[in-house]
Write a structure and sequence with these properties.
- The chain contains 14 helices and 16 strands.
- The protein has 507 residues and is of the alpha/beta class.
- The chain has 2 domains: 312 residues, Alkaline Phosphatase, subunit A (3-Layer(aba) Sandwich); 82 residues, Arylsulfatase, C-terminal domain (2-Layer Sandwich).
- The strands form 3 sheets. It has a 10-stranded mixed β-sheet with strand order 7-6-5-4-8-1-9-10-2-11, sandwiched between helices. It has a 4-stranded antiparallel β-sheet with strand order 13-14-15-16, covered by helices on one side.
- The radius of gyration is 23 Å and the shape is globular.
- About 2% of the residues have low confidence.
- The structure holds calcium ion.
- The site of calcium ion (CA) has 5 residues, from loops.
Length: 507
Amino acid sequence: MNILSKIAGCILLFTAANSYAQQQPNIIFIFSDDHAYQTISAYGSKLAQTPNIDRIANQGVRFRNALVTNSICGPSRATLLTGKYSHINGYTLNEKKFNVGQQLFPRMLQQHGYQTAWIGKWHLGNLPDGFDYWRILKGQGQYYNPDIIGPKDTTQVEGYVTNIITQFSVDWLNNRDKSKPFFLVVGEKATHREWLPDLQDLGAYDDKDFPLPPTFHDDYKNRVAAQNQDMTIDKTMRLRDDLKVHANYEQKGIYGRFTPEQKKVFKAYYEDKISKEFDEKHLSGDSLVQWKYQRYLKDYLATARSLDRNIGQLLDYLDKNGLAENTVVVYASDQGFYMGEHGWFDKRFMYEESLRTPFLIKYPGVTKPGTTVDQLMLNIDWAPTFLQIAGVPVPADIQGTSFLPLLKENPEKVNWRKSAYYHYYEFPQPHHVYPHFGIRTERYTLIRFYGPSDSWELYDLQKDPHEINNRYGSKGAEKITASLKKELKKLILQYKDTEALKILEEK
Ligand code: CA
């Protein structure tokens, strides 16, 4: 081969690699846990600033109605991996063993030239499949010095979990096969209960006094399921185990993992400052509940502060390594969370705060910077979207739809779903939320609770955005109820939810 043909060959190879890269961008999916949109400044939060999550919003698109289909941790991850509802992928409840042998979209990405990695929280009772590289937290994961499971062994890694996950992600990015596009899930532990902040963030919000949400003192009138839940800041949130008031530092699971230096700093804050303040106040009744609320928000937001800072580090890494232009970055939580609305923490209910999840995407050259999408987008849509971005055909049995057209075109002109289906199962533990399914349209939410007690709820989100006025059965609601029930049945049939169909047809 002469020198000219060698050069020509190199140019051809280079061109091929280049167009390949353009056709198949890298994808980083930063997937947090229980991170409420009410606490993200890109979503208009006044509670805290999240400058790095906002960077994604400013450079990309913010979905205002990104909904989950079953608002708890494991099922949301199972839906991400399959693009299917819980009743189809088999993972309806937490703490089961997810069947990784079924069709998972990362495996399809691998078959089409991607290298795939999952780093951080996995929490599916099984080891990952469909990933070239994985390092996962053991179970729910620990905030300090967590156990990290790899294909060969489990090791305890010293440090704070969010920093460790970023470090593992950057290490993998540095050492990856650079000839291939990549799909990386950064699975965050933050901001899951019990909200242990990084040492450098302790007290970051102590000078703030947070306003109570309008529904903080909700009386749950006309809402049987809400009357029977066990997730209030008042009764369910624990002073010691959640808010670290005279925490049990002998407790092996959490504090037994701390190094003496970590424990010293942690105790100096929670024992010498917070617990002392608590003792001096002699709180009871509503003043106690309000103090708990303030402490809850301070711990939660301090934990989220590290999350946001670490997202900034990942974005900086992409910028510094010439990857930003060819990498799709998504930030999402596995569901929303209550920040005192209805007097609650946790999730589960098909009410806005836990039904909606933050979802931001920047796709250089595709997303228009700083724009929003209002369409009803579901977590079953995530898998088909990633497949379509990668140029991989979407299998017909995936239940979601790629939302790429909503990014590429004027969303108002895209033929898109007008109603969304939801089904929650986990009962009675841990928070005694009755199982329910329902439909959400642009304006209404209709919910059918079942299990120990059957009931319906109907909300007009336009007139009643906080969902405290259950209009089901009230005068004037007959027509909209009938039409929503008809649409609900249609969705149940479309998504093949036989259990819900049976319940719906019984009465
Ligand atoms: Ca979660």
